[in-house]
Amino acid sequence: MKWRMRYLTMFVSALLLVALSFVLWTSNQKKILRIEVYAGSSWDVPNSRENRVLDNIIRQFEKSYPNVKVVYESGIPKKDYDNWLAEKILKGEQADVFMVPENDFSMLASSGAFKSLDSLISKEEAAAYYPVAYQAGQYQGHSYALPIESNPVMMCVNKDLLEKEGISIPNSNWTLEDLYAICQKVTKDTDGDSLIDQYGITDYTWKQALVAYNGHLRNQNGVNVDSVEMHQALSFISKLDSLNQRYKVTSNDFDEGKVAFYPMSLAQYRTYKPYPYHVAKYSRFSWTCIPMPAAKAGIPATQVKTSLFAMSSKTKQDKLAWEFMKLLCQNHKNQQELFAKSQGTSVLTSVVKSSQTKKILQADDFGLDSLTSQRLDHMMKHSVLDISRDLDYHSLERLDYLLGNALKNNEIDSILPSIQREMEETGK
Q1: Which of 116, 148, 152, 375 has the fewest CB atoms below 10 angstroms from its CB?
Q2: Do 126 and 143 contact (CB within 8 A), yes or no?
Q3: Do both 322 and 287 map to the same domain?
Q4: What is the pLDDT at residue 16?
Q5: In Å, how far are 26, 197, 200, 201, 257 from 186, measured between CA atoms?
Q6: Helices 412-427 and 228-242: crossing angle, nearest 10°?
Q7: pLDDT tens for each residue of 58-88
C-alpha cells in the first residue's frame, strides 16, 4: 500500500512539474502581432519616408511589450493593395492591424471586416483629431478605423502674377464667381503676338467643382451622377476652359510662372520643390496657399483624403492591437515625426499647431508666408471628406473617363443620363 502511495505521489509531482514547465515555456514564448501596410506614399508622391517612422514605432512598442514580436508585411504597391487585401479578408488571413484603402473603407466596414472601436476610444481621444480626419474612419455613426495622416487639397496661388495684374489675394471665403473673374482678367496675350500666353488656372477637376456646389456622388438611393450639382460643376469647368481658346493649360505652364492658380494637395506642395524639372528649374515667383473656392460662402470646398488603420474583426490580440494603433495614430511625438518625414499633415490639432510644424512649413517655403501652420489648421477645420471615397477606385476611373469625354465633346446635358445608367449598372 505504501509503495502505491509513493508512486502516486511521484506521478502527481511529475504531472505538476510538467504542467509548471509548460506554463513557464508558454509564458516565455513571444506573442505575434501582425500588421499590413502598402508600399510607398499614401499620396502617390516620391521621397516617402513613412516606413522609417513605422519601424521606429515598432521598436517603441516591442520595448514596452518585450513578450510581443511585431511582424509586418509591406512591399505591396498601393495600386494593387486593395485587391490583395480583399483576397486576404476573403480567406480570413488578414493581419491584426492593417491599412485601409479609403475608397474601400465603407464596403469593408459593411462586410464586417473591422472590429468596432466604439468601446475602446474615449471622447477625449476622439476630440484630439480633426473632425474630418476622424470622420474618415466612421461608418453609419460607428468608429472602425483610426486616421494616421491627412492630405487636404489647397489652391496654390502665383502671388507675383496677381500682384502684376493689380489683383488682391482672395480671402478664405472666396467663391467660384471670384475665381472666374480673376481667371478672365489674367488670361491674355502679354507679348503682342496675338496668342494667349498667360492663364487663369490649371488642373481644376470636375470633382473639385462638384464639391464647390455642395454636390455628392451618392445619395440615399445610390449613385447620383445626373444631378443638378454635377450639371453646374461641368458647366463651370467648360466655362473656365473656354477662356483658354482650346489651349490645354498644364502644370508646366504654372512652373514657368504663366498661371495664376493651381489646385494642389498638401503632399504635392511639400514635394514640389525637390522635383528636378519643376520649380527649381523654372520658377522664381512667390506662392501662397488658400482654401478652395465654393459656389457660395459657407460651403466647405476643401477636400481631405485620410490614411486609415483598422483592427481585424478576427484578431485574438485586440488589446495589443489597440495599444499599437494608439501609438501610431494618437501619440503626439510619433505624429510629429510622421509630419516631418512624410508629405501629408498630422491628424492631431496639437501637432499641426506646434512650433515644430511651424518650422517645418517654413523650411518648405516658396516665398514669405506661403503656407503657415495657422492656415493649414484653418483648412483642416473647414473641410470635407474627399468625394472620391463615394465610389470604388475602378468605378471612379471609369466615371472620370466618361466625364472627360463629355466635356471634350461638349455633351454635358445630353450624356449625363446615360452615364448615370452605366454607373448604376456597374454598382450592382
Answers
A1: 116
A2: yes
A3: no
A4: 54
A5: 73, 10, 6, 10, 12
A6: 130
A7: 999 999 999 999 998 887 888 888 889 989 9
**Domain containing residue 185: CATH number:** 3.40.190.10
> What is the helix (H) or strand (E) element at residue 259, kind and residue range?
strand 259-265
Spatial contact of 102 and 64, defined as CB atoms under 8 Å apart: no
Residues 134 and 164 in one domain: no
| Per-residue confidence (pLDDT) for residue 410, from 0 to 100 | 87
Question: Is there a single domain that holds both residue 117 and residue 193?
Answer: no
Q: Which three cell numbers stand for residue 168?
A: 488682391
Q: What is the pTM of this model?
A: 0.87
**Tens of pLDDT along 141-188?**
999 999 999 999 999 999 999 999 999 999 989 999 999 999 999 999
Residue 6 — pLDDT band, cuts 50, 70, 90? low
Q: What is the pLDDT of residue 76?
A: 86
Q: Which residue has the cell 471609369?
A: 398
- Tell me what the pLDDT averaged over the chain comes to: 87
- Strand residue runs (E) in 120-220: 138-139, 142-143, 145-158, 199-201, 218-219
Q: Which residue has the cell 466596414?
A: 109
Residues 279, 282, 285, CA angle at the centre, nearest 5°? 70
Angle at 204 between CA 418 and CA 300, to 5 degrees: 90
In whole angstroms, what is the distance from residue 380 CA to residue 130 CA?
7
Q: Cβ neighbours of residue 182 under 8 Å, at least 6 residues apart?
A: 162, 167, 170, 200, 260, 261
With the C-alpha atoms ordered 255, 259, 265, 269, is the resulting torsion angle positive or negative? positive
CB 362, CB 166: distance < 8 Å: no
Return the C-alpha cell found at 83: 485587391
* Residues 86 and 180 both lie in one domain: no
Q: Is 25 exposed, middle or buried (0-12, 13-18, 19+ CB in 10 A)?
A: exposed
